[in-house]
Amino acid sequence: MRILHQDRKKGEIKLLMENLDDLWHLYNIVEKNDIVFALTHRKVEKKTDKLRPETVERKKVRLGIRVTDVEFHEFSDRLRIHGVIENGVDAGSYHTLNLKAGDNISILKEWKEHHLNRIKEAVKAAKTPVLTFLSIDYDEATFGILRQYGVENIGAITSHISGKQYKTDKNEKNNFYSKVLTTLEQIKKGPVVILGPGFAKEEFYSFAKEKKPELLKDAVVMGTGDAGMNGIHEVLKKGVIKFVENTRVAIETKIVESLFEEIAKNGNFAYGFDEVENMIDSGAVETLLVTDKLVREKKADQLLEKAKKTSSKFMIISTVHESGKKLEGLGGIGAILRYKMDYS
User: Fold this and answer.
1) What percent of the chain has pLDDT over 70?
2) Any idea where the domains of the chain sit in the sequence?
3) Which of 194, 212, 253, 273 has the highest CB neighbour number within 10 Å of its CB?
4) Please, what is the angle between helix 228-238 and helix 248-264, to 10°?
5) 262 Cβ contact list (under 8 Å, min separation 6)
6) Does the structure show a pLDDT above 50 at 344?
């Protein structure tokens, strides 16, 4: 993400979306009743002579809409912003902005600290290399790209061969590894983490190192208890790889796991809106965790302001990745406490 223009008096910031992660960051910035300006396509009636009916054509126009809803779908590579046109053709009509990487928008809103921090984070993240995961065993190879919001599941290749056959059929094994290597070469972004529960990860690494050594110059191989996406999430929980531990998703995963550890040992925790609010009012909250969906509600936004006044830290957690879904299961809000409260 790049900041193209700022006007503090008007409350306007113009941003350039450079990749899919930027669209996710934007999803966490744009809220209901904000005004967003962007280039878009709109159906415009074209007047003709009286003998022919009017025709409709799609023209590229710049519109300013007052936001009613925002949707982010990581699989479509688009951010959809719905709203009512306030500036431009057909004022008063509804319109949807379909934003993609490469688009720029201007946002007019009441900027809060967590919005500005999100922009700073997105600008900084643009300098961080994207990471590719390959989770492999003798049955399947699963590919994932680490994004700021979570792991994008690219797909999988199935070997169709049992583990016993692998011991005797070297040709079939090499055929499987060749398909995996070809796919990895096509989708690779940034460093590669090769992981899995058995020996396939080391065997594939040796195979690939011989065929395409330049592809694995920055590769890391590590063992996990599970294969597939579960193995990838295990790596994120461990946070032991240098270029993983400081990513947004790894930090979010670690803090949510800390909350669940406190719950498991009946330690310093709270969850559910009312309970967490009581803990904030008591000054007991060390870190407040709120999902990206819940933070859009006014009551959650007010809770963030309360947390700031009591010097509590807070983090907005993406519901795209596994740990975010776990927090969503607690009502979308939880807190790690400074000390355990006595309810007696």
Assistant:
1) 91
2) 2-125, 131-245, 251-337
3) 253
4) 80
5) 268, 269, 336, 337
6) no
CATH match for 131-245 among 3.30.420.60, 3.40.50.300, 3.30.200.20, 3.30.530.20: 3.30.420.60
250 φ/ψ angles, rounded to the nearest 5 degrees:
-70, -40
Classify the phi-psi angles of 200: left when phi > 0, otherwise alpha if psi is within -120 to 50, otherwise beta.
Answer: alpha
pLDDT value at 48 more than 70: no
Which class is 251-337 in CATH? alpha beta
Place of tokens 């599970």: 226
Q: What is residue 267's DSSP assignment?
A: -
**CATH architecture of the domain formed by 2-125:** Roll (2.30)
Enclosing H/E stretch for 165: helix 163-168
Q: How far apart are CA 47 and CA 42, in angstroms?
A: 16
pLDDT digits (tens, 9 = 90+) for 208-240: 999 999 999 889 999 999 999 999 988 888 765
CB atoms within 10 A of CB 265: 9
Say how far apart CA 130 and CA 145 lie, in whole Å: 7
* 91-107 pLDDT, tens digit each: 999 999 999 999 999 99
Section 246-273 average pLDDT: 91
